[in-house]
Design goal:
The protein has 499 residues and is of the alpha/beta class. It has 14 helices and 16 strands.
Length: 499
């Protein structure tokens, strides 16, 4: 190397040998760096060790081993899904102030939770006063008698395993709320790590050959990268997007067509030896140690990840259960079946986007849109529940089903609207099921018109705190020196919904 004028023992193209090796290692993109660096403390390069790591014990006994977090982008209507309101039909066409109920826009709850943004059009969009009736019927289901609308014929049969939380609220009334649902921060605030990244940061691995935080179907677009990102926790804690194609599940994760497995292994061994030589010179270089481990995992993942997303071993009955044989349910079915396979193999947190960005955003033609959209996810989600249960995994896995906000009880009037609902952060519904969660239970409520979440309600970070609690992690003890989080970032565990 020293005979080349561009290279020397101390430098390469104007850079030190240490910089060259660093660039070489980090150039393997997020394939490995976004997935491991967790279990021996020394590989948390440049960051403090977390206060909880399963290698050394959790803050308290965990009730769940893994989480499947299902997110429907665009804001499904809580009113036409899991929080039906008869009063909407009774007073349809009237304005809020003509009903016997308090005008919800004048409620202290509305004013307390309102968060201004720059656009006047956005500021006032959730207060449409003319009541729009329910667009679907509903009935009570199961022994629990929980009301679910008729657009969920499959999931309604699982209602006795669900815990429905009807008093969620958030503050962003535009689609930046997708990020807020996962990070807990309004778009005007400093960005925070996503809930999946906190889970990754705080927990040890259950399978050293797979990432701890996997994303299926997302991020939904570049502007929603925050929903899976880790920011100051370090890029190694971000979600790893996988494609459900066993031939190419990871971007940049395939060997070159002409490269044999042995050749690639030899290449990794050479890189490892070079890194180890440098490690002798710089024994305190934690980034280098992390990089060495990253290459080791990257090599292992090439075998483990394709197997995890290969459905060829699944029975025909299972693939039909998830709706893989039907065009309208195939995409959601594949992603949810993939999620089951991943938690089965030890992945800690699987974030699933069954549909694309803004898909559920029904400003117009709500009845047409929600009829079609519910049909795309109803069977696959019910299949996931049934499949986890019959495999004994529902006692180990917590399932979260959520969106970024609900829809307005009032008719959207913008653009001469006649049949849709606008964004509604003031009150909406999510549900949980599985490990550590009460079955056949309803927690909280919105008012008679479905406008405000009653009482204190639950800001989105309460959901984060609850999920982390189930994993054995106290969200308030995951502190990073130099990074002061607000009280609202920590959230409050929803103890009422826990077993």
């Amino acid at each position: 190397m020293s005979s080349n004028p561009k290279f020397s023992a101390n430098g390469c193209c104007g850079h030190s040998r240490r910089s060259f090796l660093s660039d070489l290692g980090m150039g393997f993109t997020g394939l490995a760096l976004g997935s491991m660096l967790a279990d021996d403390g020394i590989v948390r390069a440049g960051e403090p060790a977390p206060s909880a790591d399963l290698a050394g014990g959790t803050h308290f006994p965990a009730r769940a081993k893994s989480v499947i977090w299902i997110f429907l982008s665009g804001g499904y209507s809580h009113l036409e899904t899991f929080d039906p309101k008869p009063a909407l039909n009774q007073y349809a066409g009237m304005t809020f102030d003509k009903t016997p109920f308090e005008n919800p826009v004048n409620s202290p709850l509305h004013k307390k939770r309102f968060r201004s943004v720059a656009s006047e059009e956005i500021n006032v969009r959730d207060v449409y006063p003319t009541i729009y009736p329910m667009q679907v019927g509903w009935k009570k289901h199961g022994q629990s008698g929980i009301e679910v609308t008729d657009w969920w014929p499959h999931l309604s049969k699982q209602v006795d395993d669900l815990c429905i939380v009807r008093n969620m609220w958030t503050t962003d009334n535009d689609h930046a709320a997708e990020n807020q649902m996962h990070t807990g921060r309004h778009r005007l605030d400093e960005v925070q790590p996503s809930v999946g990244a906190w889970a990754h940061y705080g927990l040890g691995t259950l399978n050293e050959n797979l990432p701890k935080f996997v994303v299926l179907g997302g991020p939904t677009r570049s502007s929603t990268r925050e929903s899976i990102d880790s920011y100051y926790l370090g890029p190694q804690h971000s979600g790893v997007p996988l494609v459900l194609d066993p031939k190419s599940p990871l971007p940049f994760g395939r060997r070159l067509a002409k490269q044999t497995l042995e050749e690639q292994q030899n290449e990794y061994e050479l890189i490892g030896k070079l890194n180890e030589l440098t490690a002798v010179e710089y024994p305190e270089d934690q980034q280098l140690r992390a990089r060495i481990r990253a290459y080791e995992l990257a090599f292992r993942m090439q075998a483990a990840v394709p197997e995890a997303v290969d459905f060829s071993s699944e029975t025909e009955a299972t693939t039909k259960l998830y709706g893989l044989d039907q065009e309208n349910t195939k995409i959601a079915g594949q992603r949810l079946l993939g999620a089951r396979r991943l938690v089965e193999r030890g992945v800690r947190f699987v974030q699933v986007f069954p549909s694309g960005y803004g898909t559920w955003d029904s400003h117009q033609k709500l009845k047409d849109n929600h009829t079609r959209l519910c049909a795309t996810v109803d069977q696959p989600v019910a299949a996931l529940m049934a499949d986890l249960k019959q495999r004994g995994l529902l006692d180990q896995v917590t399932v979260v089903f959520c969106t970024e906000f609900g829809r307005t009880p009032g008719l959207e009037l913008r653009g001469g609207g006649t049949n849709g609902r606008d964004h509604h952060p003031n009150g909406f519904t999510v549900w949980l099921a599985g490990a550590g969660i009460k079955k056949g239970y309803v927690h909280g409520a919105t008012d008679e018109l479905g406008y405000n979440a009653l009482g204190d309600g639950h800001y989105v970070t309460d959901l984060h705190a609850t999920v982390l609690h189930l994993l054995g992690v106290d969200n308030r003890r995951l502190e990073i020196p130099g990074r002061k989080r607000l009280d609202i970032d920590h959230g409050q565990t929803m103890t009422d919904i826990l077993t």
